[in-house]
Amino acid sequence: MNEIVLITGGTGLVGSRLTELLQEKGYKIRYLSRSPGKVKDVEAFVWDVEKQTIDIKAFDGVSYIIHLAGAGVADEKWTPARKKVILESRTRSTALLKDALRDYPNNVKAVISASAIGYYGFDNGDRWQVEGSRFGDDFLATVTKAWEAEADLIRELGIRVVKVRVGVVLSENGGALKEMGKPVKLGLGAPLGSGDQYMSWIHIDDLCNIFIYAMENENMSGSYNGVAPHPVTNRDLTKSIAKEMGKPFFLPAVPSFALKLALGQMAGLLLGSSRVSSERIESEGFKFKYPEIKGALHNLLEN
Ligand SMILES: NC(=O)c1ccc[n+]([C@@H]2O[C@H](COP(=O)([O-])OP(=O)(O)OC[C@H]3O[C@@H](n4cnc5c(N)ncnc54)[C@H](OP(=O)(O)O)[C@@H]3O)[C@@H](O)[C@H]2O)c1
């Protein structure tokens, strides 16, 4: 019988591709969603993180849970209310999963939870960040730390837990690449701020394969960075996108103050530097299909 994987936030950018790759491998997919019925071919069950309610039938026969749910970090300006939603959609959803797994009989072997490289903060210059590096002190670092702490509580139920600290996901269907590609397409490609800040990116297929690898590999537990082996600076990334699109890249840099004015605290996401290491996941035997930015962009932008 096909093993069942329950995905939270499965309707999103990462979840949609992960669903395809898991289905190709013969797994049966289920979603926990705020609005089931969004995706036709996947059986979905409802949960309400705010009200802390969940349809426990979702867990029947499930072998693995992949936890991706969380309000979009870059979707809206960071007002105090939005920050609360960003934090609690992650911590309280994880707590809801933990309570359900504690209170209802189940055969879940592992929970693989998303986390983010925001854990390390964005003021690390060109210093490599490994899983044991200290966490940052900005808003996203606080969020990821609290999110991972909730996920760790699931271990106390005797269930294996892996946390994947996801980098900037590059996909042809949305996310950072689509946003960065917009000005480049118009011939307005330019570095942001100094342009020297590191961006630790990952091709969406490599990321989804890390989630699957972590799920299938019983020896893995704890935190792993989900980033490609070769982070690039903002200047090099924008230049590579322009080259792949056959567009110019010669404009002066967008000044930091303009980004700060437009985006407030969120500007730190674009102006801050984060050079994150993939050594730990590689030491588990994981092989990247797209280790270099050139190959990743060529694959994503060729059509
Ligand atoms: N994409 C990136 O570059 C990136 C980088 C670092 C970390 N990550 C992390 O990886 C995970 C997946 O990323 P993604 O890009 O696929 O995210 P996404 O496209 O924004 O999808 C996230 C999913 O979470 C659910 N969700 C949204 N708001 C929610 C809320 N307030 N409460 C509960 N559930 C909510 C939604 O599913 P339903 O509508 O079905 O409920 C949504 O489809 C996220 O947790 C994200 O923080 C992503």
From TrEMBL:
Pfam families named among the record's database cross-references: DUF1731, Epimerase
Transmembrane segments: none
All residue ranges annotated as the NAD-dependent epimerase/dehydratase domain in the record: 5-219
Ranges of residues in domain DUF1731: 254-300
InterPro entries linked: DUF1731, Epimerase_deHydtase, NAD(P)-bd_dom_sf, SDR39U1
Domain of life: Bacteria
Family matches, as NCBIfam families: yfcH
Family named by the database record: Belongs to the NAD(P)-dependent epimerase/dehydratase family. SDR39U1 subfamily.
Protein name: TIGR01777 family oxidoreductase
Organism name: Fulvivirga marina
